[in-house]
Amino acid sequence: MTLPKESTDTGLLKTILEKLENIESSIQTKSAMTDNEQGDTETQSKAPISPSVPASKAAGISPPSPTSLKDNVYESHVILTTYPNQVGIKPISLKWGATSAQERGPIVASRHPQSIRIRNAIGAYGGSYCIYRALAVAIGDLSPNHRPDYTNTEPPFTFGHPAQWDDPEKIVSIDPWGHLTVESFGDQISKGIDIRPTIAVTRAHMKLAEVDEAIEQGRLAKDGDVVTSEGQLKVLKAAIEPVWYLPGVAKRFGIGETLLRRALFEDTGGMYPELITRPDLKVFLPPIGGLTVYIFGDPEKISDPSQKLTMRVHDECNGSDVFGSDICTCRPYLIYGIEQCVKTAQEGGVGAIVYFRKEGRALGEVTKYLVYNARKRQEGGDTAANYFKRTECIAGVKDMRFQALMPDVLHWLGIKKIDRFISMSNMKYNAITGSGIDILERVSIPEDMIPEDSQVEIKAKIADGYFTTENAPTEKDLVNTRGRDWDDIHH
Ligand SMILES: [Zn+2]
């Protein structure tokens, strides 16, 4: 096939296609040889999907010893779906932003035998946990064709059908029908298609030491409803895995879809060739952490603009949130947010915390700890003046959370306005208000909840433009705001 070079991107795509063609013909040759050797006529009578090849030969490696691989885990042939216009591959069409789940169509990411031909999404269900699923299959703990039994898994509350679900540009990073998968596509599921929920909703009770303290000190009261007589918080929660509609995600960031696909392909180490070779697949399930919504009070009220809503959007900081590290304000801020949500719920309104798995400003904990060391060891010690510089030296940017996709979950909840927004972040504020949701009041963390060592972080953030009701620190304040020294950390 001779192809004109039009641009770098299409040139690359075509080079890949040519290579794939070569691989395909070599694979088909090998496959035919193997089939002949084994006298395997069964595979030839199946619907023609090419290329197909014995697993060991596809990888170009010798087969593992019989003891290291459970017998018959997979069929002997690998079906690649990276080649465009393959015979037998017919993805179910998707209409993003359609007004019903059926019209929109199911998101099928599975490679199970009955789903692989109609699969219409790149990636796998379960976010990053798909890797553990793979291990479970490889060691023989899980059948690759296991199908979930969804009995009694349905959500206790469904959030109705907010108008935002029908706008293809309002929600681009989650599947608004993701918790209604079983209800909406039960027929297809019972016929054997592997369609999985990407959202699950449940109820729970929460017990927090700080809430006990707030009750003791009289800041919160047990009302027997939002706060039980035992001091537990009643909560409705929703876990959400990301489902990216690539044209919408690209548009949100003001870039082209081709560039987005290329970047995702390159920076996942080429993990998803279909990003490049299958432009017909518009949905991508990225292998990243999702988010959880915690709702205090009556969830019906969250989309009702006549009801008061208090809310915090919190990005994960495991060291502080769970383990109580005092170098930052994350857990105190989270607790303050929960307390304010509970108060609003007790006053007859509703409160919500949205918890995003974006550890360490989405730079990850390894980068975060490198930054901590660099901050504490730098000349002059850890000061607010140099807070962001150390992160930039190591990560190249000071923040990778890019809040552009964050408001999607608020639109999924049907939120139209937020009365009290418990956050100092301008990025979060701008993303939310820019998406059409009003914020009536911004609330920063009270001074007495800020740990001493995290003054560096908070002062630096305020100087960088974060919201505060207090005076912004001067240049001198920034230099003088020092965290714990390296020597003090040794223990
Ligand atoms: Zn933190």
Automatic annotation (TrEMBL):
One of its GO terms (molecular function) is GTP cyclohydrolase II activity. Pfam families: GTP_CH_N, GTP_cyclohydro2. One of its GO terms (biological process) is riboflavin biosynthetic process. Residues 24-68 are annotated as: Disordered. Residues 77-267 form the GTP cyclohydrolase N-terminal domain. CDD domains: GTP_cyclohydro2 (cd00641). Keywords: GTP-binding, Hydrolase, Nucleotide-binding. The keyword DNA-binding does not apply. Residues 24-47 have a biased composition (Polar residues). Residues 300-443 form the GTP cyclohydrolase II domain. The keyword Transcription does not apply. InterPro entries: GTP_CH_N, GTP_cyclohydro_II, RibA, RibA-like_sf. Transmembrane segments: none annotated. PANTHER family: PTHR47259, URACIL-REGULATED PROTEIN 1. Belongs to the GTP cyclohydrolase II family. This is Uracil-regulated protein 1.
